[in-house]
Each structure stands twice: as C-alpha cells, then as structure tokens.
# Entry
Amino acid sequence: MTELNRIAVSCGGTGGHFYPGLCVARELNARGGSALLVLGGKNAPKQAEIARSFGVETLQVSALPPSKNPWKLLRFLLAFLRGRARCRCAFREFRAQAVLCMGSFASLPAAFAADSLGIPLFLHDGNARLGKANKFLSRYAKALALSFPSPDGALCKCPVIQTGMPIRHELLAGKMEKSAAIDEINRRWNVGFLADAPTLLVFGGSLGAASINRSGRISADLPGGAAFQVIHLTGPGKMEELKEYYAALPNRTLLLESSPDMHLFYSAADLIFCRAGGSTVSELAYFGKYAVVVPYPFAAENHQFDNARWLASSGGARILPDAECSPASFNELLRDFLEHAGEYRKAKEKLASIAIPDASGRILDMMENIVSASCAGEGKLHA
# Structure
C-alpha cells in the first residue's frame, strides 16, 4: 500500500471548515506524516496562528467569494489566479501527495492547483447537504467524504464515502463523567453546581443565536423548574440582555459569552438546547447527550435541518423548527423532561449507534486506500 504522509488540507473560510481540516492535519502529524494547511478568506491570519500553535504548517492564499457583480467578479478571478499560482508553488515545494479540500469558495485555488499538477484531489463536506463548491469540484475529485448521509449525494460527480465529521482532539480527550465535569466547573467558576441536579446547556453557536437566547429561558412558574442548573453561552456581546433575567431566578447558573471548554459543558449536561451545525450535531452524538436542536432557518439550502434529521434519526434528539421556538415551547420541553427523565436517559444512549469519533482517521485511510488502488493501476504516484 502506498503510504500518504504529505497532504495539503485546504480549509479556509468559517470555523465549520477550518476546525475539521485542522483535525485531519493534526491526525496526520500524529501518525508521523506532515500536513500543510491552506487558508484563505478574512479569517486566515487568525486561523494560521491557531494552526501553528498545534505545530501545523500553514499557507495563506488569496481567496474571495464569487459574485455576479462584474467588479467583484473580476476581483474574485484575480484572487483565484494569485491563490492558484501560490498553491502550485507550495505544493511542488511541499511535495504534496494528495490535496484535501473541506469545502467553501476558499478551496477553489488549492483544488485547481492540485488538478493542474496531477495531484489526487479529495473533498469533505461538513453538512448533510452538499455545498455548492463541493458539488462543482466533485468532477475533479477522487472521492468526497461525507459527514452524514446526504439527501443530494447523487449530484456528486465522484464516489461518496461516509467518514463522519472530524471532532477536535481536545473534545475527544475531554469526555468525562458528569460528576467530574461538575467538580471542574465548580472549581473554575465557583458556581456551586450539584452532581445530581438536572443540568441544562443552552448555546447558539460561536456567534450566539437570537431565537435560542430569546426562547431558552426557564419560566418562574414551571413546576420543578428551580431544580435545573443552567449553563448558557450567549454569544459575543449578548450577555447583558440575559443577566437581568437570570438574576431573578433561583436556579444555579453559569452565564458566559463563549468558552473553549465545551467538553466540560457537554459532559455535565443532561439536556441541551442548541443549533444544528455539522460540528455541533457530531459532538452531541459523541458525548451521547439528548438535545433539542433548532436548525438555523437561513443556512444555505436549509442544510442544518438535514444535519438535525440525522441526529434525530437515532432517537437521541428532537427537532424544533425555528418558527416554533418560543419560551412556551421551550418550557413545555423542560416539563416533559422532568416528567419523563428516565425515558430521556434511555433515548440519549441511542446516539452511540451513529457517533463516529475517529472521522479524521477514516478520512486519511480513505485517501490512502484510493491513492494506493490508483497507483497499483498506474504504477506510479503523482507528486
């Protein structure tokens, strides 16, 4: 078998592309190989700094989103050509054996550089419904790795293989018993949480979500509602609007804008109320936590609904449409949880059947197997 130990991973754009790509790069480095992370878009400098902190080599390239506006289209084409040229030089110097693109317009320069050099191209999609860039690039790719079963996988021009969504190493290593997580939360934030009290985690993603913040509030007259202890991540700049509300409640609460310690919160939670991004639903399955997921209604092609449907298919989650998300519906869910806690405990155990904690390794294995098969037929390895 041909050993792939030098791979370029293009994962610029949002965190939903960057962090899964970084996971794959770190896994390759841990296996003794070498990864080059290709970053484009406005977040590239900060992403490069994060990647380098984990010992991952980076390359920043020009990348702008395509547009129908003539002036913006010209700027897109110029950025694409500069990015493609830079990738071609870097891939030659790095001696890349394969290129993996994690989706978004930022992958275009790396993908076309790989194709022009005859380097095997692979794709990964972090959502159930394929992104436009991946559907377009699939005609040049050896295979596309799916995070979840896809409703439009037939539109892909290359083979599709479900590998799962890469989960950050810190989350994989940070899974723990609830009591241990509660102890650590108390130590760090001095909140006095109890290990045997029902714990509710509410968050709307890295930027927060207005409907989650507005609706995810325990009513003062909910029977037994005071028993809940609440961890609520509001999103940047959105804490003040909730401080007054929580101050009037008897519940033990931990209110933060954001935190890098999601492994603690997932481990401590008995019930979670959140959006349905690709990384989030994969993490929920891995931690085995029952969730009420509210798909973001303005996500491209409503892809969060397809992500949520995958999670709910196990029986370990419930979908609440954003239009139906309200304090009344939220408190009705809490009431049901209090009345049927045993059923919820059994339901969350079903998530283990769909969790894929080793997705990063599966993606690398898929690439190596396909390149090896190709080399066996051609008698050489593209470089």
Summary: Confidence is low (pLDDT under 50) at residues 379-383.
